[in-house]
Amino acid sequence: xxxxxxxTVASVVRELVDANHILFDQGVVDGxxxxxxxxxxxxxRFLLARxxxxxxxxxxxxxxxxxxxxxxxxxAPAGYLExxxxxxxxxxxxxxxxVVHSHSPSVVPFSVVTGTKLRPVCHMCGFRSEKGTPIFxxxxxxxxxxxxxxxxxxxGAALADTLSDGPAVLMxxxxxxxxxxxxxxxxxxxxxxxxxxxxxxxxxxxxxxTYLTEGETVGTTKTISTQYDRSWFLWLKAARNSPMSQ
Amino acid sequence: xxxxxxxTVASVVRELVDANHILFDQGVVDGxxxxxxxxxxxxxRFLLARxxxxxxxxxxxxxxxxxxxxxxxxxAPAGYLExxxxxxxxxxxxxxxxVVHSHSPSVVPFSVVTGTKLRPVCHMCGFRSEKGTPIFxxxxxxxxxxxxxxxxxxxGAALADTLSDGPAVLMxxxxxxxxxxxxxxxxxxxxxxxxxxxxxxxxxxxxxxTYLTEGETVGTTKTISTQYDRSWFLWLKAARNSPMSQ
Amino acid sequence: xxxxxxxTVASVVRELVDANHILFDQGVVDGxxxxxxxxxxxxxRFLLARxxxxxxxxxxxxxxxxxxxxxxxxxAPAGYLExxxxxxxxxxxxxxxxVVHSHSPSVVPFSVVTGTKLRPVCHMCGFRSEKGTPIFxxxxxxxxxxxxxxxxxxxGAALADTLSDGPAVLMxxxxxxxxxxxxxxxxxxxxxxxxxxxxxxxxxxxxxxTYLTEGETVGTTKTISTQYDRSWFLWLKAARNSPMSQ
Amino acid sequence: xxxxxxxTVASVVRELVDANHILFDQGVVDGxxxxxxxxxxxxxRFLLARxxxxxxxxxxxxxxxxxxxxxxxxxAPAGYLExxxxxxxxxxxxxxxxVVHSHSPSVVPFSVVTGTKLRPVCHMCGFRSEKGTPIFxxxxxxxxxxxxxxxxxxxGAALADTLSDGPAVLMxxxxxxxxxxxxxxxxxxxxxxxxxxxxxxxxxxxxxxTYLTEGETVGTTKTISTQYDRSWFLWLKAARNSPMSQ
Lengths: 246, 246, 246, 246
Description:
4 copies of one chain form a homotetramer.
Chain A: H1 3-25, E1 34-38, E2 45-49, E3 62-66, H2 84-92, E4 98-102, H3 108-111, E5 135-136, H4 139-142, H5 153-163, E6 168-171, E7 175-180, H6 183-206, H7 214-224, H8 228-241
Parallel strand pairs in A: 5-6
Antiparallel strand pairs in A: 1-2, 1-4, 2-3, 4-7, 6-7
């Protein structure tokens, strides 16, 4: 690997560490959940921390995996049980450069109810389809007595199928997975999926809700996609100034 | 410009920076939202930060704009996409000296429901009309496929029309804009619009709500208008002592 | 005044300052709200801060008032507009040694709804009557266009009448007032009135609620009344360690 | 006692102190609530702090009790009024090595409603039975006018009977008690009982809820039981870095 290449990898690793800390500080992940980035030099691999709490991840904790979820380096420490979420989505979606999996608290309720879909109520959430975010029902693939987790390539592929070409998928009784064409986009979408779920909940309790039209989801997504860095650097400062980082 | 005039401008700029930090610390703005002040020497201009997260604004980030949203200084950095909110309100409302635009989380739900209006439930919110705060439906002006943002003078003028002579206007699927005859009043109103929306939500879930009468909105506004500084200096200390300011 | 007496007063003043900071740190007061103590040497007077945000009160801000709300010291700074709440309750209730007035956020909603009463749902709130906390409707005394505030002895006396011999009274569209036979009891009751209102709200949304019986309010009050110091010293440490105190 | 034995006890005491601080920092306990561990050398005894706020507990505050709630050491400071919760559960349940009693805020509402049970909605809560967590109604044992507290061995034994062989029991109008086969498991379950109660509340407000099947509770419990340390060390850092620990 050339010096330039290794510098690029180092840069992605540093940003991935920041993403871990941001997602914790913004309340998207707690002890669980994970964020990955596609390898910048080897598009058939991805970078993901070893199995640990995101808030505590450092650069040396980031591992390289192939799409089957195998660590590239011999003797690597244990990876997340659900690393197959990442591998199978990168395999299926060449446009995806980053994946966030979380149990963010306002999103989980939408994963367990029937008759109510997670839909975009405001411009910050326009990246999600006005038709509603799909729900992955693991019972359809793992039967009625699973541990609900994506612990194999087969389940990861099924999840990727439900995600289809969208930005997000809910996982029944579990959480959600959000993707982006950049790391910062994926983090932005993960945060605003949580924010938007909370807004929708509150709005539904007030009365019938006016959701975004299809045209509005297109319009808002185009404009908001120019604004990720504004949130990124704010959230980065918040994470670094948090008592957890002292 | 005389020394006295430039000192006055400097003073407003300093207070505007404080307002940015307060609105973030009180949860009214996140990475988005903005606050402006009418220029103290040139009532046909206003002061507003360049496009950035409010929590990070410093004095050197504050720019001067004309009502068409053009920066006065050549080569100024990019302004907020929605600076037209400010220009058109200052143009229409000579009594307004400050404008706050935000996506504050308890207010957005009221912007997307029909049949339920944001109304004053307690004395701290008496500045809002007992008839309910108007909602700006951008579809009426930008069609069914816009990005929901106020990105032109035409849309800013339409928003100012819906605001009319009131203190606040909701923006469907987007947020709200609150105005004041002083910067501290606008900040106070923005915080208590959020607080009051939360109180109304909770009350509505308990049973039929007794709102303020028109007379009570007049009475409370008169008394509370003498109390802004009490909150201002509390919030300023909170913002300055926050880990975000370290 | 003897040295011993002035030492007693100094001690009450110090504890009153702590109470101000605790009530802010626990979310009972924001920029508004106030807490007083009956004067330990002059039972016809009470101690209350000058008009300012509770979080910022220091010993030198504490003033002495008579029951008509007049400061004892000539040239004293302005007192709270609603100091009559305190004077009239101390006048009517000889058992009361401390009064807390607040707009605590989970309590205000109960003040504006009909058909739902604030009632004790758990042992920590057993000090409130199982029949429900009374609501003071200021329209009955100040007409339909007041500023909702207790700005005269007449209104303070009417509020004291509605409080009657109970521990708490709600004030429609405004907040609540809680009393105690000690300063620590009043602070404890103010915090757990907020906590209990939140619990009741949540419970009511789940289904029909089992409230405490009259016997249980008696039983819990007797036991819990031995436990105030445990919370007091915890809350004091939390307030002192808060960034606001740095 | 051998040196090795006393070292083991010291180690459990240190971890018990950490557990106290974690439960406060995670919002499970406030000034009230307590956590114990079975004595590692004397299975007929347990370790529990003296009566004080959990956040302030240090190693020297931890006492040794027999199952009747008597302190082993003569002249020990006062224990918690409800230490009988711990003694009677340890007596009845030889598999239990740690007990957490709390009034965690999202759980109390489930204790006072009829017709709605606390049930597992997601994989992190799969340790609770899909049939719903039992509720201990103290009126059945102490009559209609008690203080709701478990202040005797008789009441503790009745609570242990309602807990039966499960992981958790709700206490009407009071709180809950959660047990574990290790201290870290009990703490984990206490935190995720609170988290899961909040998720269930929110989900129920959105529509009919899909709960975990019995098979899923078995599956998730098996997998998640390998993950306690990940949360433990995160929470420990959060508690130690909190302003409360400075």
